[in-house]
Amino acid sequence: MKSNRTILLATALVSLLGTAAVAKPPFAEKEGVSCKYCHTQAPMRNYRGNFYHDNNLSFAGFDDAAEAKKAGVEVGPEASSKPKSWTAPEAPAEPAKPEAPAKPAKPAKPTKPAKKAPAKPAKPAKKGGKG
Q1: Which of 64, 82, 92, 100 is deepest in the core (most CB within 10 A)?
Q2: Strand boundaries in the chain, DSSP class E
């Protein structure tokens, strides 16, 4: 009986320690934000935690409102705090204005052949000239 109780107690202790090991406060320290900035309940991440994980543990280019909208949720608590690795997202490039269609080249006006003066008939040679 005592051994069953010991095993049960050891299992409970390992379970508690295992759960605590999932949380990673060093990330919160590194970024200068609280754990709940990225987690709803440890170890479950919110949209910020998912962004951080998916972007090589960085908030570079993070847009809080856009990421919340993409996740289909309201902007989370602590929206005013910025993590240390945060950089402003790049402004979306302006859509290129469609170029005006090129005007078709005007066809060259057909050139009229130059008018040639009608050939004058050759003057007949005079017969019996001076001689």
Answers
A1: 64
A2: 39-41, 44-45
